[in-house]
Write a structure and sequence with these properties.
two-stranded antiparallel sheet; mainly alpha; 13 helices; single chain
Length: 354
């Protein structure tokens, strides 16, 4: 297992390199880069200063924002953002810095990208951790109960709830929760902005804990509704498939109780498929699903940071968050394979193809 883990870790290097290269050239070709954004703000004709953050127009390869500005000023802006160097030189400089985990400084926030990521990361991790924990606490027992009572009334009406949850996007459910419980039209039970109250520092320890979870209710519920349905169906089908196998019939014929059959025989085999889906669930909740939720609930996390950086063409932040998201995703997938081994020690990673 150690040799397999080392091979997987080594393969992460070319994977990260390929992803960075592809995104580097895509971003470089996109119109309305940081230089155009800066010139547009000077003239007030577009970029981040325009309503809706409209992209800066280019005519005949020349930025409209650059017209009427002193060429020396334009050259200074290009030097400030590092665009006075050739494309290949910028690429090698970026790769060299990334090899040292130096993501540079934000174009528009006046801070190092590493500091920004470390500042925003706890919010995203907090949101994803509680959403994942609740998802598994709900989905595993519900899926097992549906498998054991397959075809019953409980299975039918719970399937109807699951179908509705699966069909409803997380952001739509978030808007519905705001309307109903966030003071939109009916009730005003929960806050809809931020992770803590403005007077959080003045609260007692117990009050801080209550305030923290009070703010988490709506965003976490929005994430759970979009993920619990898939995991519940996966759990049910996995256990249902194992329950019908011959070794389960034999165990029942030997006089084992239904509880012993589930715990000693079915659980380990059925959990293999669920463990296989754990990395994807983690990646979705921690990195993908939180983006829109953070924007909707004004949570200052990595998802919102990457969204605002993409809109403003803040390339160091874009590539820094992309690097972190990709690296975390690869590590979580490796962790999922290792959890496979913990669930079933019979697996041999040394003979497994990468």
């Amino acid at each position: 297992m150690l040799a397999y883990s080392v091979r997987r870790l080594l393969l992460m290097v070319p994977t990260l390199l390929c992803i960075l290269l592809v995104n580097f050239f895509i971003v470089q070709a996109a119109p309305g880069g940081p230089v155009e954004q800066a010139m547009a703000r000077l003239q007030g004709i577009g970029g981040m200063g325009a309503p809706g953050g409209a992209a800066v127009e280019t005519v005949g390869g020349e930025s409209r924002a650059g017209r009427g500005l002193d060429p020396a000023l334009i050259a200074e802006i290009e030097r400030q953002y590092g665009f006075d160097k050739p494309l290949n030189e910028r690429l090698w400089l970026m790769l060299g810095n990334y090899a040292r985990l130096d993501f540079g400084e934000s174009f528009f926030r006046g801070a190092k990208v590493t500091d920004l990521i470390l500042e925003k990361l706890p919010v995203t991790l907090s949101l994803g951790f509680w959403a994942m924990l609740l998802t598994y606490l709900i989905s595993l027992p519900l899926g097992i109960a549906k498998a054991v009572r397959h075809g019953s009334r409980f299975d039918i009406w719970s399937s109807a709830v699951i179908i509705i949850g699966h069909a409803m996007p997380a952001f739509l459910f978030a808007l519905m929760l705001i309307v109903v419980f966030g003071g939109g039209s009916l009730l005003s039970w929960f806050p809809v902005r931020g992770l803590v109250s403005e007077n959080f520092a003045e609260l007692s320890v117990a009050a801080k804990v209550v305030d923290y979870f009070w703010h988490l209710v709506l965003p976490v519920a929005s994430l759970v509704i979009g993920s619990f349905a898939t995991l519940t169906i996966l759990t049910k089908n996995s256990f249902l498939d194992e329950i019908t196998r011959q070794y389960v019939v034999t165990a029942r014929a030997k006089g084992f109780s239904e509880r012993d059959v589930l715990q000693r025989h079915v659980f380990r085999n059925a959990m293999l498929l669920i463990v296989a889906g754990l990395p994807q669930a983690l990646i979705t909740l921690l990195l993908g699903g939180s983006l829109l939720i953070e924007v909707i609930f004004s949570l200052d996390g990595l998802g919102r940071l990457s969204y605002e950086a993409a809109v403003s063409r803040d390339y160091p932040v874009v590539f820094g968050t992309l690097f972190i998201f990709t690296l975390v995703g690869l590590l979580i997938r490796l962790l999922g394979d290792l959890c496979y081994r913990l669930v079933d020690p019979r697996l041999d990673f040394n003979t497994r193809a990468l």
